[in-house]
Amino acid sequence: MHETDKEAGLLQALRGVTTASLTTVLLKKGLRTVWMRGASALSPGQPRVAGRAFTLRFVPAREDLANPAAWSSPTSTRAAIEAMPSGVIVVTDAMGITDAGILGDILCARMKQRGVTALITDGVVRDGAGVRETGLPVWCNGLAASPAVASLSFVGWQEPVGCGGVAVFPGDMIVADGDGAVVIPAALVDEVTAEAVELETFEAWVLAEVTRGVALPGLYPASAETLARYAAYRREQGL
Amino acid sequence: MHETDKEAGLLQALRGVTTASLTTVLLKKGLRTVWMRGASALSPGQPRVAGRAFTLRFVPAREDLANPAAWSSPTSTRAAIEAMPSGVIVVTDAMGITDAGILGDILCARMKQRGVTALITDGVVRDGAGVRETGLPVWCNGLAASPAVASLSFVGWQEPVGCGGVAVFPGDMIVADGDGAVVIPAALVDEVTAEAVELETFEAWVLAEVTRGVALPGLYPASAETLARYAAYRREQGL
Amino acid sequence: MHETDKEAGLLQALRGVTTASLTTVLLKKGLRTVWMRGASALSPGQPRVAGRAFTLRFVPAREDLANPAAWSSPTSTRAAIEAMPSGVIVVTDAMGITDAGILGDILCARMKQRGVTALITDGVVRDGAGVRETGLPVWCNGLAASPAVASLSFVGWQEPVGCGGVAVFPGDMIVADGDGAVVIPAALVDEVTAEAVELETFEAWVLAEVTRGVALPGLYPASAETLARYAAYRREQGL
Amino acid sequence: MHETDKEAGLLQALRGVTTASLTTVLLKKGLRTVWMRGASALSPGQPRVAGRAFTLRFVPAREDLANPAAWSSPTSTRAAIEAMPSGVIVVTDAMGITDAGILGDILCARMKQRGVTALITDGVVRDGAGVRETGLPVWCNGLAASPAVASLSFVGWQEPVGCGGVAVFPGDMIVADGDGAVVIPAALVDEVTAEAVELETFEAWVLAEVTRGVALPGLYPASAETLARYAAYRREQGL
Amino acid sequence: MHETDKEAGLLQALRGVTTASLTTVLLKKGLRTVWMRGASALSPGQPRVAGRAFTLRFVPAREDLANPAAWSSPTSTRAAIEAMPSGVIVVTDAMGITDAGILGDILCARMKQRGVTALITDGVVRDGAGVRETGLPVWCNGLAASPAVASLSFVGWQEPVGCGGVAVFPGDMIVADGDGAVVIPAALVDEVTAEAVELETFEAWVLAEVTRGVALPGLYPASAETLARYAAYRREQGL
Amino acid sequence: MHETDKEAGLLQALRGVTTASLTTVLLKKGLRTVWMRGASALSPGQPRVAGRAFTLRFVPAREDLANPAAWSSPTSTRAAIEAMPSGVIVVTDAMGITDAGILGDILCARMKQRGVTALITDGVVRDGAGVRETGLPVWCNGLAASPAVASLSFVGWQEPVGCGGVAVFPGDMIVADGDGAVVIPAALVDEVTAEAVELETFEAWVLAEVTRGVALPGLYPASAETLARYAAYRREQGL
Description:
6 copies of one chain form a homohexamer.
Chain A: H1 2-14, H2 19-28, E1 40-41, E2 49-60, H3 77-82, E3 89-93, H4 105-113, E4 118-121, H5 128-134, E5 138-140, E6 152-157, E7 161-163, E8 166-168, E9 173-177, E10 180-184, H6 189-211, H7 224-237
Parallel strand pairs in A: 2-3, 3-4, 4-5
Antiparallel strand pairs in A: 1-5, 2-6, 2-9, 7-8, 9-10
Helix pairs in contact in A: 2-6, 4-5
């Protein structure tokens, strides 16, 4: 329960910081490869999401495997969906293939029913209109009409995957917003979240300074004088 | 006339099924390569279109051919447009070149005047704002300011072409919606249309089942029990 | 001052012609490579902009250079921004790299404060929501959360650059609208502007002709008879 | 032992047929996606190899995982190599990444010691000169100096993988020659091998016919008359 | 006969000038897009070839068309080969697809029998070892085991095509050597050949000058003094 | 002189270590992005080279700049070559453009005359046969017949550049061999060279161990026992 509360606190904090802030914090720790190429918000204005990664993995289609019979296989996307716990973010390795939709409206509707927070892929989805109607937030590389088996074979879930050039392990933290989707390695979630919250506050103050006409030198990066002014501001605001 | 009525019925039916359903039906017949890469709806919310393919073909620009003099050539896009019958969907092979617009507002306006149903290309158009104003629905790979001759030479119409990695022959059926554009080979139009209408009805029922909380196993793909429930539903609905 | 008036007149004229017309005029002079690949309007409906190019140049990131320390370097994007005069269009060579944002909301806010007209790049920006709020018009190749230093090292400003496959020199004229961004070489600005204004007027008349049902042959390209009709129209309109 | 003899016979037969013949036979069975893009013979004149697939899988590098510490991990390429039985062909999914060598001379030498038949990857190797000296035949997409961890994280062996756009499962049959590397799904090995041996004999006869001046029509594809002549030839040769 | 003699003279002259010289001459006439991307000599040391273009055209494979039945179609590569006159260079538009060989050893052997001078494509060939044995010089983008129908549908011959980003029309002149393959538009062959022969002589002299230690300024491009020295050299050599 | 001796010693040492060893050492220091994509040895068997970077920079061609007149410009490749000191390695940023040769035989001959050690580019060269005859070692991405001005405009030398995805500054150390070309940042040359020499000795010993049958666990990475054996070996060899 204590753990659950802590996780809920982390998720709430992460929904309040931009992916841009998170990548800055991760870069300062030496992690440059955390933003997933090709995963854009399907619907404009999707709110920011945060959750633990539940991974799906595809390999290329081979005609003896990737056909309608695959839909009944014990290693199907259907089986994977029924294994998804509530609150996860599903990260799908489609190897960047964009001419076959990994999932369509029916499977997205079921994921929404199961409490999945969001779907993220370096591939595409199909039934775009229907998917949007399910209300499941999706980050993907566009739409395609063709079913997954036209180009992809599903091979498993909860394995390490690559998504958009980034390694994602089951249980890593995922945050996605208008700038795309970012992974925070599980071991670093606490410290990254704390530092990102700090950074977010600081940069909001810097932006306000710029907006009132302050020049960049000495402000950003901050000189000692600027840091002092910021410290004063924080005290005033009771932060 | 009878033929015309049949064709009108096919077009009406096809405007009622998604390209996603069509690709599923085509895949079951062994056709995986029917969805055109790079052809996205230019304007959000464009309604679904269906029509017979009228093809245009470009090769790369060579400076002795691709220049303003080409606009008066007997093999110009202008001449092709004047040969377009009403109701066709113009499928243009731009070899995926995206830095020169195959057509702009004036030519699109003329196509609209001639009753062309839609324009589809793996390339781009120019005068994007003007093209939208013509009301001609366009599926393309974005916009570019440059004229076609900056990168392309027009070489003919009503020839077999490739568009977005798909072979298209004059007279093939084309359907396009928010998920993109799909070809149905001319010889398969009747059976594919019939099966897609069936599939559409079934999947709508499945989606409703999922939305009321039914799990995927046994539902999709359907078990014998599910199929029996669906048959009952059809009887109830008089389908 | 006289110079300033002339420049203001040019800019006003250029804000009235499409980039499509400009590329047609430039092509007639033998310039095919003037439209920048990958630079699309960040916000739909951004008005057309015109201004002189102020260039920024990046090279790929090397981990000993591209790190937070770079933000304080004398060769930083911060220093470049403080050197930007009012009215310029900032053209940034990001080598087409799309997985790290060249700039975010704070730096865009400062550019807006300094009177920069627009930002154009073959790369991407970050803090997309924040950048839009600054009101600075941006043409770019999407968004990414990661900071520039994740993939890029900034090396200087006001140098010749490549942007989207096009050579841009400081002081070249830039025009951008819904069809993207175009360069007019500094030496050609006067004549290109004059001819584009002419072309714009003519093509508006042609489009009206097409809309009222005139066929393309003889109209576009124009026959002698068409040119005579157009001349009559111009006289009527007092153009 | 009987099984072993049969396998040895298959391997010997497969070393006598070209990958071109194998892909023709597989295509006739509906399998088009069996040739691995990007896997070329490292040394000219490498003899044809055949063997069962032993798979390695990488995901993209993340800096907290892909570093020298990974070399001692229980999930290292070192551990995978010590698990390789004699006679296998190692198929490595490098996701087509070509700027970091998956393995170098030391690990290839160890694979050679363990009796590995060949290494195939859609990525690259490093220490090219040293790898050639080990005598291990390699099919890859070139060479790179950088170590795997510069761009790749190793995650496991004997899992389904994608290699050059083709699905490969542990135990599938792999054949590679000057035209590249091909997979034969495990369930199809017997029949494909038998048909390929037939096809090879027939096409050698056709080639001899062409070389003595016979035209293609009726010869290839063969008319009934041609098939009769071929049957006669087979009888003469005691085939 | 006179025509034949003239053509033979052109071909002999063109076999004596590099494709590099030809592209320089063509560029001076405003033609930049004449070198075909992706068409490299299959065998090192292939001698330079020259001949008129005979074109082949493919579109992408669609499974109802691209299958073994296509080999007997009246529009097959077999039929095209039987239509090839002696001395032509076959230019094949494979749309840059590199995972299926457009032709193999049997068809190349037949082309050699018919007196075809060379095969050029932006795609690949199969049966690489067998193709080399036929003695037909090939410029291509590598090798693949798969048959054409795995990815390509053949649609015709002697049509305008694109090959490696270049427009080629039947009857254009083609020259290929170690630097690749170049098209000379039919209308420009005489003048381009004459100027290239001149340029070749001049650049050989320049190279000799550089080799004996002359610096570039004034030499290349040539000053008036250099041109005078070259004129003297020509007189001495009786050129 | 002392400096010169030291530099000569560094160069000699670097000619004795592989680029693979150098990238390993650089990675251990956090530098992953040091190997240049697309720069392969033009001639097989080119010996390893080492030298300080002398950079050349191109931007894309614009037809008003990139034409034969450019050859006489003060900012020409000719002028750059006359500024090259003996012993440098010329690193050329061609932005990865591979359809126009940055330089041909005449300019390479002049570079050879001036004592240039090697030419490295992410682009291509032309006059391949002639370039090989000059004896200048070249690492490039293939050959093309077209002159640089067909696709590129030369803009300067001795500036920071990107080459194959790597930042290179004038004076950085470059080493190239059969695995490609690597940059060592100027500030790190001494320590990287020393450590690479050490690593090279150790890995040669490891390879010998593997060749005599030692398994990888405990050997590579080395256990304490292995390190002790290696230390003994070093003592025996007097290293």
